[in-house]
Write a structure and sequence with these properties.
Blueprint (H helix, E strand, L loop, with lengths): L1 H27 L6
Length: about 35
């Protein structure tokens, strides 16, 4: 059961990282489309 929770946590963390990278690009990359 802990393994399932860890898998879900990793999935959410991965989504969060992609979201954060996208937000960073929108804020700091002048060539990124908003």
């Amino acid at each position: 059961n802990d393994e399932k929770a860890l898998t879900i946590a990793d999935y959410i963390a991965g989504m969060t990282d992609r979201f954060a990278m996208g937000e960073y690009k929108k804020l700091f990359d002048p060539f990124e489309k908003v």
